[in-house]
Fold these 2 entries.
Entry 1:
Amino acid sequence: MRRSPGTVVLAMAFTLFALNALAQVALALVGRSDDPAALSLMQMAIGLTSLAAARGSWTGARWAPVAALLYGLSTATMLVALGPLLDLPADSRGGLWVGAAAVQAFGLGAAWYLRRARRLATTTGA
């Protein structure tokens, strides 16, 4: 199977996202972080969905677009929840909504690209 440059880039990006999120979880587990438990659970969800998206992107799996969407949704949810979880002031929360929208847009774009790449690969026999 020949991978397109875009699917390779997405697989690498999702892998880095997974490593970052799971490192945060590991730090919380060994007591090196004072993050709330709910934040660690959200980081776990982000780590697992981005790991799934990375594997799906790399292998060209049929479910890869769904994993990309779930990554975007779980990350956007965490960003929106940061305000109440960390008791951030109201003027700081606006940026969280913008970030959540950007991450969700990335997830949607990645899902669209992965779906398109799979469709092209199956029609060309790659």
Entry 2:
Amino acid sequence: MIVDTNALSAIADEQPGIRDVLQRAILVAIPVIVLAEYRFGILQSTRRSHYHKWLRENLPGFRILNITEETAEHYAGLRLELKHGGTPIPSNDLWIAALCREHSLPLLSRDRHFDVVIRLRRLEW
């Protein structure tokens, strides 16, 4: 599964239910976009040192998904689909959705706007 930024935050904060979902996953991947958003959030946090330490210790346990030419093709097609459907989603989330399609993986997120993306299965905790 691919984790969205709110899911990564939930993992770091050990929110109830998140561990159960993670234990069922064969693979847990973080898009580089999510990593950037999370690092941005850390910079604004009053618990900055705690989250930096958590990330440093736990990041090796995740697979990081980078943007590739194939991802760009999925992004372009998806953006056009959503534009024609009148259901655009935020740009960073388009990249995340493109990675989900590219790797045929579900997305762990509480953001319901992902539900408009055809061929993307969103999981919650």
